[in-house]
What we know:
Elements: E1 8-11, E2 15-17, E3 26-27, E4 31-35, E5 38-43, E6 52-55, E7 59-63, E8 65-67, H1 88-94, H2 96-99, H3 105-120, E9 124-131, H4 142-152, E10 156-161, H5 181-195, E11 204-208, H6 213-216, H7 219-232, E12 235-240, H8 244-254, H9 258-264, E13 272-276, H10 282-291, E14 294-297, H11 299-304, H12 312-317, E15 322-324, H13 337-354, H14 374-389, E16 405-409, H15 424-427, E17 433-439, E18 442-446, H16 455-472
Helix pairs in contact: 3-4, 3-16, 5-7, 13-14
Amino acid sequence: MKQHADSWLIRxxxxxxxxxxxxxxxxxxxxxxxxxxxxAALGALQPLPxxxxxxxxxxxxxxxxxxxxxxxxxxxxxxxxxxxDQSLGAWxxxxxxxxxxxxxEHSFRLATRIGLVELARSGCSTVADHHYLYLPGMAFDSxxxxxxxxxxxxxxxxxxxGGATQVRQAEGTASxxxxxxxxxxxxxxxLVRTYHDPAADAWRRVVMAPTSPPYSMxxxxxxxxxxxxxxxxxxxxxxxxxxVEYQNEVQRRHNLSPVAFCAEHEWLxxxxxxxxxxxxSHEEIQLLGATGTGVAHCPQSNGRLGSGIADIVAMEAAxxxxxIGVDGAASNEACDxxxxxxxxxxxxRAKAGERALPAYAGGQQEGxxxxxxxxxxxxxxTAGGAQVLGLDALGTLEVGKAADxxxxxxxxxxxxxxxxxxxxxxVGGGRPTLRAxxxxxxxxxxxxxxxxxxxxxxxxxxxxxxxxxxxxxxxxA
Length: 477
Ligand code: ZN
């Protein structure tokens, strides 16, 4: 009997988290049938003739993670000493803006590959990259490289086409000059025609994503990008309110809050999601919630840059779709979805606990452990990600959904002794061994290895590239 490439029976999982809310967040399984790249059944199942069997004994199954904010080119810019202890503004000048013009086709492809490999090995099946490394006259087509590298690894890829039509102060002299609005919009148009698939289970999407609303464009350009995106039927994404500097800047220039500024320029709605949103007033959260605007929560980068902790729990209560992104590796040396969701789980609880007061001062709670459970974090990182990207066939383990699944093996000492193995990948704090990552029913990772990838060789190429970058900026002879 011929075996179908995308048809599997996953057998005997120890636990299944579905990405759904409430009681359906767990499924007893223990088996999952995948047929033609879709989930066909969950339950106690017997193999069908010709079906391939994937043994999930002592494994936990999650939906493939959906990472909604990244800058893959930064994967060669980790831990740069000049930026390691800087907050956002100084860090931008010392790291991404200082180094971005030094990338050539080889180093850009290498950085992209490193970032995607790291994500795939954490069980991530869909990656949205906010790519803003566009300089006039660049000698290579970075969009093509990004889509090619994602396809090689069998991952779904969303290109958020960054860029700017004015220079930000932090860029200093490192910028070779911004694009014109016409150049920017016509390239987005080209990318949509070349790559964008509107299907609910698309492998390739394009998003309109000027790098940062208050800084990257004059306000009238911003409004034009929103209108152009809606004409093209694509989504809108950007950074917002990562630090108080956003509040200072928009207040000074426009006498508005950053969210009110976005509202004025048609940049809110269910087709918009913002990275960070660390610094928001109650009114801003209500406005974001009322418009269905989403967030890419990046707790590790926000922690690393000392920006703060976004109030994700309040945002969800206000009606916002919540997703999780790793942000670029230049401000997050652990750019994988397990580290990121582990941090999200801890930091939302810590944030709630920070508000606890003694009873004599009016307090009513001892701490904040009740605000976010592992199932919430899994839902944010899977179903929530699919929602903000508009990839409605992804993100949950349900019959009819795309077969994007991560199977984690519980063979590390940090999992020994756990009473509830379903929470292991998020609570463990280290990278679990991946039994398999399936994307659309196809194997991207098997037994912790990516077929055809020489990890040692990738590491060696990365070390050489770091030396070349260090020489280019004069920190190494
Ligand atoms: Zn970012």
